Amino acid sequence: MDFMKESKQIKILLLEAISDSASNTFATAGFTNIEIVPKALDRSSMSSRLKNVSILGIRSRSKLDEEIIDSAGDLLAIGCFSVGTNQVDLNAAQNSGIPVFNAPFSNTRSVAELTISEVITLFRRTFSRSMAAHSGKWDKSSHQSYEIRGKTLGVVGYGNIGTQVAVLAEAMGMRVIYYDHTDKLQHGNVEPVGSLRELLEQSDVVSLHVPETLKTKGMIGKSELNQMKKTSYLINNARGSLVDLEALSEALKRGHIAGAAIDVFPNEPSSNSETFTSNLNGLDNVVLTPHIGGSTNEAQERIGVEVARKLIEYIDSGSTTGAVNFPNIKLDVSPSMMRFMQVHRNVPGELRRLNDVFSRNGINILSQQYKVEGDIGYVVLDIDSAILDTIAEDILREVRMSENTIRANFF
């Protein structure tokens, strides 16, 4: 499909109640074929609905594995309107020549504010007192209720969200320490520690802000919980796989730690109508929230605009800036020239073979940008279009016949 020739008519499918800011951004850019579905699709529905879809927008509930991606023959790009992209098989998308875009920083403030609110809620025991008041009990006492000023917050992962949490916590009088596997420039009076164990042993409250990787999966288990103070709290607003919830439940029930706030879970309902179950259900010293860390109107509006703009730039110019599985090339729209793109397997000589095709056809290449990411190469050519119109289809046919070509198109 030559999407560059009819880019504004391509089909866009937006799932999971993505903010209207996304569809408005597409519409402002001239895209008219936009379908909006307010929920995630199950596996069979996803495969059937992706027919003739060129741009797919999803949030965290939709799952795109290799089989679904391979069956979506018209899919050109995927927009994850979220921070993470673990809901997509990135290697499968890359091997199909499909860039995946996300919004890694747009919900930073929202998650940071939720974290600080949970710190206060846990130390003041407001959640259990609120539930008691709802049931008619009047517990007006200071028992186990503390100010956060002077307490030590341990931040695991001193990235964008971790630094925001630290700034807010320091402003409220907390001492902040952090552990990160890479050297980071600390802000204010924040202090790095040399190990996770050291952080767990010192902290009055521990907050996790790391991505899901092989190293971080199950990073907080029985052993780590035993290293925490008995008066301390655990907060996880990052990824559901980071904490062993069975071990956490056991630690809470035996009083080894004082409480927890959990926003993300290993297994989450696929819709709001599905029942949520967890080892932590019913514990009055645990604040449970349904993965709402980034669910503020402001964050979702920012995410909608950011991801939509990245997708538009890719369709209009071939720019892949911000793609998580693709060579990142920044390109501007060039109305005075014809532009060609090819995604190919990263093998020796492929760029030379491509240039030979244009040379044999008497086409002058005005500029060329080429980058490699993993197993693929991405090349974009700006070319003299004076004689191209009559032989464009022949060139495309020849390039696509190469066993190493994954995708090729003219803009």
For the record, the CATH architecture of the largest domain stands as 3-Layer(aba) Sandwich
Mean pLDDT metric: 92
The residue fraction in helices comes out at: 25-40%
Helix and strand composition category: alpha/beta
Radius of gyration: 25 Å
Note the beta-strand portion: 15-25%
The rounded distance between the terminal residues' Cα atoms is 11 Å
Q: How many strand units?
A: 16
What is the global morphology? elongated
Return the string of H and E elements.
EHEHEHEHEHHEHEEHEHEHEEHEHEEHE
Could you describe the 3D structure shown?
The protein has helices at residues 20-28, 43-49, 66-71, 90-95, 108-124, 126-134, 160-171, 196-202, 222-227, 245-253, 297-317, 350-360, 392-401; strands at residues 12-14, 34-36, 55-58, 77-80, 100-101, 152-156, 175-179, 191-192, 205-208, 233-236, 259-262, 286-288, 338-345, 365-373, 376-383, 405-410. It has 411 residues and is of the alpha/beta class. It is elongated, with a radius of gyration of 25 Å.
